[in-house]
Amino acid sequence: ADSGFGELCQPEEGAGADCWPVTPGETWHGFTDADDDHMFLDPVKVTILTPGMDEQGNMSEEGIPAALVAKFLDERGVVVEKTGPYNLLFLFSIGIDKTRAMGLLRGLTEFKRAYDLNLRVKNMLPDLYAEDPDFYRNMRIQDLAQGIHKLIRQHDLPGLMLRAFEVLPE
């Protein structure tokens, strides 16, 4: 569990409006069929990717499902707007101060430290533990993460989600 944690899903570089369009042919954003001059990033939204799947949807052998990070942050008062299998969306709208941004960074750093120490679920996610103490009694966070990751891979959850959103209702 010495691997890096959390990558920003953002353009490599750029300033001004030229870094906001989602350009066809680029792979960093994960959109396979982007229209030219049609899709733009929202500058108040920040997406953080957790280990387990890259921007192109390739699954790795090990992973940290975003739901575990979201639960950890939630138990510490950090608001996660949306969670996918391996991505977390945060909103930094006008009026958000440094305190909230630092709370997010602190929460992510605490999660990484606790994950690397392989703490018991009981100590790391007490609210989750309280939901089913018998199930989580001796479980450690890395075992829980890899168990969920294995199920996500086995059932191709990201692929199922992608296919579910490919068809628009009539």
Automatic annotation (TrEMBL):
Q: Name one GO cellular component term.
A: cytosol
Biological process, per Gene Ontology: L-arginine catabolic process
- Which InterPro entries is this protein grouped with? Orn/lys/arg_de-COase, Orn/Lys/Arg_deCO2ase_major_dom, Prn/Lys/Arg_de-COase_C, Prn/Lys/Arg_de-COase_C_sf, PyrdxlP-dep_Trfase, PyrdxlP-dep_Trfase_small
**Which domain of life, per UniProt?**
Bacteria
Q: What are the alphabetically sorted keywords of the record?
A: Decarboxylase, Lyase, Pyridoxal phosphate
Q: What EC class does the entry list?
A: lyase
A GO MF annotation of the entry reads: lysine decarboxylase activity
Looking at the Swiss-Prot or TrEMBL record, what is one Pfam family this protein matches?
OKR_DC_1_C
Q: Which residues form the Orn/Lys/Arg decarboxylases family 1 pyridoxal-P attachment site domain?
A: 9-99
What are the EC numbers? 4.1.1.18
Spell out the protein name for this chain. Answer: Lysine decarboxylase LdcC
Annotated source species = Salmonella enterica subsp. enterica serovar Wilhelmsburg
